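Hey all, sorry for the wall of text incoming. These are the two entities for the joint prediction.
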Amino acid sequence: MAKITYIEHNGAEHVLDVKAGLSVMEGAVKSNIPGIDADCGGACACATCHVYVDEAWTDKTGTPTAMEESMLDFAENVEPNSRLSCQIKVTDELDGLIVRMPESQH
Amino acid sequence: MTKSDAGVIIVGAGHAGGTAAALLRQFGYEKPIRLIGEEPLAPYQRPPLSKAWLKGETDAETLMLKPATFYAEAGVELRTGVQVLSLSPPDKTLTLAGGESLVYETLILATGARPRPLTIPGADLSGVLVLRSAADAEALKASLGPGKRLAVIGGGYIGLEASASARALGAEAVVIEREPRILARVANESLSTFFTNYHRARGVDFVLSASVAAFEGEADRVTGVRLGSGALIPCDAALVGIGAIPNMELAKAAGLACADGIIVDESAQTSDPAIYAIGDVTWRHLAHYGRPFRLESVANALEQARQAACAITGRPPPAAEVTWNWSDQYDLKYQFAGLPFDVDDVVLRGDPASGKFAIFHMAGDRIQAVEAVNAPAEFMAGRQLIARRAAVSRSRLADTAISMKEVAA
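and here's what came out:
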């Protein structure tokens, strides 16, 4: 279990307990948090679960695969700390993680 | 209950219906929402049923669109295993099996599509399967394993994904296709060849240009597929994947305008202003291609769920999207966007032999559709170029030395 803070583009914060083994995307979608669409359900096929990982956490969330990087390349407003949240697996080490959402996923 | 308290009723608790309910709450809709489904389950994701779920790589809980607790927490009354018998638009009433009547203020029809049946002798034998629901997938999974042989009727996505999953589970698979090539209706010829070779190298057999005359069986259980040529393909189970037909009987009987689906506009509204329709059941105008069409995809279901939820809550309509979809087979990620209408020719980028390539369908200097195998940049850039209706140089598109980022710039 990890406590994850999801911050919408408008500043609205949602703090959720997310089960280890789920993805950061699933944690948000299953609680109906706005801002992460995840149209493909986590297949790394759509780039609609784009988030910015808080700078303090970028090491712990790991590095994107080549597939994820290629998808991200074409998302809107990509930053160095951009990730597809369906590709970040939640572990106990991510307790306290903060992710911010872009203005739009489409 | 008075009509003003009646709120939204969503008929069909699939991917589209479940998403519409969740979005209405996200968008601040405060009146009652009732979500009615025929299946015994809460809304779940269908794509993994032929992919990760079938191979045992994901569990039933992961399939669910939302956790079981979501509906009560969000104030969505979920009623599963309930059939809607009729719809009366003049008095905004639904009649359920059992006789109960429900009054709606706004109705969303998300009744989906069902597998096209193959009406030949033996089609009712046990072991003759389709793949649409979780129950279908359970039955298919139970027929797969070492020493088993699956005959697949129809070389489309469902059939190919099921074949790949069957091989992963140690079963044999043979695909029987009416056309001279698989994916004939949806994919470019070089892609058909690529997928055929890829599956063959992994032990899948193909019987092309073949009609199916009958299913043969013993003790009510299928044992083989009899071809039009007279040949018999022995099998332990047969999966029929020959397309889907829209579940629009309810709408049609109620007098809503229908074509090959319930006709809706760009806000997912039907010919009755109080009734929306979303997902596989709809027949919609595709502004990008200047014609109406019925799309069967998650992307379409979600886009129309957004359109309907925006319209019902008075939000501005979401931007139009380019249709897209994906298929996972073995280690291949096949992504495609757009539709190959009015295409003059195609541009190949990359070498199919490398297992990473894309095919762009061109109308003049514009991309109408892209099919990408293990080529996410080509897919993403292609999708954006289609949306922008951008003029693209064919020679640059074909040149892998120029990145897709540069091509799309």
